[in-house]
Amino acid sequence: MNKDPKVSNIQIRGLIVSTVIGVGVLSLPNTLTMTMGNKGWVTIILAGILIIPILYIINYIFKINPGKDFFQIGEETFGKIIFKIILIIMMAYFIDFCAYVVRSLGELVEAFLLPTTPIEVIVLSFILATSYLATHEIDVITRGGYFLYPIILLFAGIVILISIPEADFSNLLPLNNIDYSQIPRGLLDSFVSFAGFEMILFALPYVENGKDSTFKSSVYAMAMITAIYVLTYVVCIAHFSVEQLGRQLFPVLQLVKQVDLPGFFLENLDGLIMALWVLVVASTFIPAYFAAGKVISKIFNLKSHKYIILILIPIIYFLALYPRDILQINKILLKPFNILGLMTGVILPLLFLIVILIKKKVKK
Amino acid sequence: MKKALLFLIIFSILFTTGCWDMVEINERIYPYAVGIDVNNAESSEGDSYMVTFSYPNIFSMGENATQEETIYAVLSTGSSLFDAAQNLTSNLQYPIYNKHLKVLVLSDAVARNPKNVLGIIDGLNRDYVINKMIQLVVTPKTAEELIFGKLKAKRQRTTEGVLYSILINRQNTSMFTPKTLANFIDDMDRTGVSTLPMASMVEDYVDIAGAGIFKNYQLIGYIDAKENEGIAMLNNRIRATGIDATYNGTDLSILATNIKTKKKLIDAENLKVEFLVKIEGQVHEFTLPQGNYTGIDTEEMLHDMEEAVENEVKMNIVNTLEILQKEYQADAIYLSDYLEKYHPNVWKQVKDNWDEVFLEAELEVDVEVVIERRGLTK
């Protein structure tokens, strides 16, 4: 890659929305009801708001280091060795991210769409198909994300619109009995579904013009994601009682299965939604896959991440198929994913900020 | 070299892909009604249920139909619905596919045992294929009798199945309230009480009227069509219904087109709740005594008629509430749900011994009837 990749603001928005909305959206209402009852929307909004300062910090880091990319800045602020450790953590995070996403996809596609196809085939063909896009540079990834962005809006739009006619919004009542002790748990659960926004670490330096409005456009993307999550949550609560929602693993799919549009001409919409959802997942998987390749190539000081992507195919494949069942998926893939996600998404930007501020003080 | 590779890839696509495991739509059996009975046979071998499947015979459809019988029903035994379908494979020519299952009939004996109901509901809800909007029905006799009986009901024959076409309720009746699997589970989670429409064979015809009351996944009794109407009114489940009353010794029939009920907690201490039922309607039929041709033309007369209807409706609702409270202690009117949502503080105090509180609750009924139109004649 000799020419510099270029990214526009609107593509950043598309990238964030398409990366963040992925596997989690199907099960988020369930995980939130387990902790928050019918008040899950509170923590979704809170998590969305809390991410805005992090976005600001990331923007700030790049603003005071113009013309440098994430890896150069990292090396300058932390020094080579510490930054390598950080990169290794990030590598683990992105590989785990990929494995978790592709395994969840395989499980659901096998259950809903292709019951006789072995999961190995689904997982492998998905990785192979996406690996082509992942070998490209960030500008292509962002364009890909932006291309799939309307499909995500369509997906969310269909789910929300078709479920409104039969919704019973009184299920959201009573409004005032928030269990405050559960909020940290709920916040953590909601935060996990926002994982993926750290992709802007790779894209931000390449924004070509209007660098000032990048922050605005990433906040806009975050607001959009929050709105989609809240609306999905609300229609789920309006359809199922809290007890039922707590029992269902993929309430959004269940919801779509239950929708019976007047006139009976559309029933069993789960097939359509699943087909759209595969694209939604692809748009989450590709950036994460790219990021894993990029980070590894920087650890070994390689010029291109192309071959790393190819090497990663068997690694992700075996990691994804390692857990035996859905409970093990949660234990082996999801739990580390949550912890590592918190580290790269929240702690890393904060660390950056602290080190930069200290260095500034020392210089003075 | 590149061309050879390309050729190889295209060639391999030709032979390795395709719908190798496709199933033609006419090579599957789509049951639309399934009945579940308790298996009383001696040699049951752990097969606790007798399951009756009824499915359309696709060879009887279309212009060149080769067979006459439009519906078939088969009987099987198994420890669950899925097991029974599995056991049928030895005498069915095609596999059973449950995606378009529309109606599930529970027999009285099955429904009386909460373990059975829980197991069946869980199986249906857990399955990936089954539509969660299937209609549930309870029958006071055996499901086998109902499903085999409906084969004979020639007058009611439809392509989507007799039970289903009656249940989707195009006639806007209040004799029964259809309930889907999803609704049933929802009811159980919210209040622990639900009603399922009651179906039985009357002579040669399928008749759905009244309801079976379920409490904690157990059938505890039946109510008739009139009482079902009372419950449906309180739950805002009626779109339109006819109400009969007597006015001045003559029959008065009202078509209620808009029925809205509001619950209101009056006294939290003694749990006094008022149900305000608002009915809008028009006169359906009203024959005046001979020699009196004035018709309905004074406001007082209309008011009196409204009052007569109000009393009639109120009597029915009060009667229904009494049965629910005293006989079944079943909160089929979503009272606990209402308290939980709108009066969470009151609910906190009563939720632990809700059954006793519900038994003692003072439920007041207030009916307001407005007759808006009197029809084409005076």
TrEMBL record, chain A:
- Transmembrane feature ranges: 12-29, 41-62, 82-102, 114-134, 146-167, 187-207, 219-242, 271-292, 304-322, 337-358
Q: Which UniProt keywords apply?
A: Germination, Membrane, Transmembrane, Transmembrane helix, Transport
Specify whether Membrane is a keyword of the entry.
Answer: yes
One GO CC annotation: membrane
The record's subcellular locations are:
Membrane
What's the domain of life for this entry? Bacteria
Q: What is this protein called?
A: GerAB/ArcD/ProY family transporter
UniProtKB/TrEMBL annotation, chain B:
- Identify the InterPro entries for this entry: GerAC_N (IPR057336), Spore_GerAC-like (IPR008844), Spore_GerAC-like_C (IPR046953), Spore_GerAC_C_sf (IPR038501)
Major subcellular location class? membrane
Annotated GO biological process:
spore germination
Domain Spore germination protein N-terminal stretches: 21-199
Tell me what topology the record assigns in the membrane: Lipid-anchor
Q: Does the keyword Lipoprotein apply?
A: yes
User: Which residues does the UniProt record annotate as the domain Spore germination GerAC-like C-terminal?
Assistant: 210-375
Which Gene3D superfamilies does the record cross-reference, listed alphabetically? Nutrient germinant receptor protein C, domain 3
Keywords of the record, alphabetical order, are:
Germination, Lipoprotein, Membrane, Palmitate, Signal
Q: One Pfam family name from the record?
A: Spore_GerAC
Family of the protein in this entry: Belongs to the GerABKC lipoprotein family.
PANTHER family, alphabetically?
SPORE GERMINATION PROTEIN B3
What is the name of the protein in this document? Ger(X)C family spore germination protein
Species this chain originates from: Paratissierella segnis
